[in-house]
Specification:
Number of strands: 8
Helix content: 25-40%
């Protein structure tokens, strides 16, 4: 298995998670995948699928720009930016909701991934969730 295959898997996995394509996940992640980000922790493909499916509709016109992507053996790294329009309410709790401002928000991020064969077995996603909240609240 060459680097290009794993690079493609990493790119497709990131895209699937960002746009909410749950159907693509079984081809990209192992059943026992573990992963986290500032607002998520998963320990299986089922849990990841639930998180990806649970999009609240607060963002529309989502766009992904990959700035760098490298795979070395069984480890992959990707730096990227996501932009989207804050177009629907963002529900934090039953009593805390941030109303949409119609502005485009942009978040830079990086993800490290580990592979088993041609699937991602673990990932860590890094981004500044405070920057995201600031853009939602103070745009």
């Amino acid at each position: 298995m060459g680097q290009n295959t794993r690079s493609d898997v990493l790119r497709r996995a990131l895209e699937a998670c960002i746009v909410g394509n749950v159907d693509a996940l079984p081809d990209l992640f192992t059943e026992e995948v573990s992963g986290w980000s500032p607002n998520m922790l998963v320990g299986s493909l089922g849990e990841l699928s639930e998180v990806v499916a649970d999009r609240d509709g607060s963002l529309s016109d989502v766009s992904l720009q990959i700035n760098a992507l490298d795979v070395f053996g069984n480890k992959g790294f990707v730096e990227y930016r996501v932009s989207a329009v804050f177009s629907g309410p963002f529900v934090i709790t039953d009593t805390t909701v941030i109303e949409p401002n119609g502005e485009t928000i942009v978040v830079g991020a990086a993800m490290a991934a580990e592979f088993e064969g041609n699937k991602i077995s673990a990932f860590r996603n890094y981004f500044d969730d405070m920057t995201l909240m600031e853009q939602m609240l103070f745009a």
